[in-house]
């Protein structure tokens, strides 16, 4: 009886061990299929398209608008005249500057003629003085030989001394003429600078587009008086647009400067625009109030900018858009770094 009991006990142990083994095997088989899925290779963010905008105004111009050929929403090329201010006063300044420059140039020409004449006079004086002193030496020799009278010798000496004084005076006049030329040249330069400034100021009456873009806002109307710095138009550069978006604090470590992204917009379904992260804020902020729910608005997020290629200007400022950020991107400028984190190989 005891032997039978021991055999039953051993059989139960074996059965229990077999069950445990089966459970372990089943767990090993099921485990690979019950693990958490691998993290996504992209991060979806949403936001609005923005563009580089410039408030364009007249420089140093206080006048009224005489031409305003474009309306809001129109496309303009670089260099296109966007507005023209009344330039009558500024044209008169240019004309006055031109007449003053012409007068100063004439003064310079006269000063140069005076210098040439003074130098010719000095050459003549030098020849005459040389002759006078030669005559004196000749009469001096004759007087020593008692051939010429002393009075003749004395007259020759006086004449030689007078020629020397005349030569020195005319040489001094050459110096004066040279100084007059320097003054005249300075006057010409000042007049030219004044004219150049007047022309620059006249050119300021024409407002040109510094780049190709679309006019977002026309801030003034035709005939309106404007002051220097008054905004005339707001011009947006659609060649350089970006997506303003926000990432949660938990996703901040997944993004990095230069990281590529694909941008899409509901306005253009099926079209994709290449982009790259160009800015990541270093300060957290609350989600903008444009977000629907209060729970999302009070979430701390980080603002990012994604520069977007917009060759056909299909993306406009204010347009809602989404971006898929490539989390598998590797920054090849820094080997061993992906998304700003070290890659262990």
Explain what the structure shows:
This protein is of the alpha+beta class. The protein has three domains: 1-35; 42-53 and 237-342, Beta Barrel (Elongation Factor Tu (Ef-tu), domain 3); 89-194, Helix Hairpins (Orthogonal Bundle), CATH 1.10.287.620. 43% of the residues lie in helices and 27% in strands. A six-stranded antiparallel barrel has the order 1-8-12-10-9-13. Strand 9 (260-264) and strand 10 (273-280) form a beta hairpin. The chain is elongated. The two termini are 67 Å apart. Residues 1-9, 12-38, 291-295 and 340-345 have low confidence and may be disordered.
- Rg computed from alpha carbons, rounded to a whole number of angstroms: 47 Å
- How many helical stretches? 4
Residue-averaged pLDDT: 84
Assembly classification: single chain
Number of domains: 3
N- to C-terminal separation? 67 Å
Q: Rough shape?
A: elongated
Could you give me the name of the CATH homologous superfamily of the largest domain? Answer: Efflux pump adaptor protein, beta barrel domain
H/E element string? HEEEEHHEEEEEEEHEEEE
- In percent, how much strand structure appears in the residues? 25-35%
User: What is the C-level CATH assignment of the largest domain?
Assistant: Mainly Beta
Q: Major sheet: size, sense and barrel closure?
A: 6 strands, antiparallel, barrel
Alpha-beta content class? alpha+beta
Count of strand segments: 15
CATH topology of the largest domain: Elongation Factor Tu (Ef-tu), domain 3
């Amino acid at each position: 009886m005891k032997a039978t009991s021991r055999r039953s006990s051993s059989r139960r142990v074996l059965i229990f061990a077999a069950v445990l083994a089966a459970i372990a095997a089943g767990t090993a088989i099921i485990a690979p299929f019950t693990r958490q899925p691998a993290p996504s290779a992209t991060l979806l963010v949403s936001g609005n398209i923005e563009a580089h905008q410039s408030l364009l105004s007249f420089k140093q111009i206080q006048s009224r608008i005489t031409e305003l050929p474009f309306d809001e929403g129109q496309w303009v090329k670089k260099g296109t005249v966007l507005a023209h201010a009344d330039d009558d006063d500024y044209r008169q300044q240019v004309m006055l500057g031109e007449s003053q420059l012409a007068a100063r140039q004439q003064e310079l020409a006269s000063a140069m003629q005076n210098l040439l004449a003074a130098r010719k006079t000095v050459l003549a004086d030098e020849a005459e003085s040389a002759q006078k002193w030669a005559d004196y030496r000749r009469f001096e020799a004759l007087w020593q030989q008692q051939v010429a009278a002393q009075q003749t010798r004395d007259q020759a000496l006086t004449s030689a001394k007078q020629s020397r004084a005349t030569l020195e005076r005319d040489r001094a006049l050459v110096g004066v003429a040279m100084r007059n030329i320097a003054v005249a040249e300075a006057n010409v330069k000042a007049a030219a600078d004044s004219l150049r400034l007047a022309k620059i100021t006249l050119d300021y009456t024409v407002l040109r587009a510094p780049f190709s873009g679309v006019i977002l806002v026309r801030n003034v109307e035709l005939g309106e008086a404007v002051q220097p710095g008054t905004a005339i138009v707001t011009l947006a550069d659609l060649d350089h647009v970006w997506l303003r978006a926000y990432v949660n604090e938990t996703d901040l470590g997944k993004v990095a400067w230069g990281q590529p992204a694909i941008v899409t917009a509901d306005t253009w379904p099926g079209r994709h625009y290449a982009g790259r992260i160009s800015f990541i804020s270093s300060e957290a902020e609350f989600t903008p109030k444009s977000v629907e729910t209060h729970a999302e608005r009070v979430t701390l997020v980080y603002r990012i900018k994604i520069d977007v290629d917009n060759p056909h200007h299909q993306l406009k400022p204010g347009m809602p858009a989404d971006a898929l950020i490539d989390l598998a991107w590797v920054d090849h400028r820094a080997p061993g770094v992906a998304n700003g984190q070290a890659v262990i190989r």
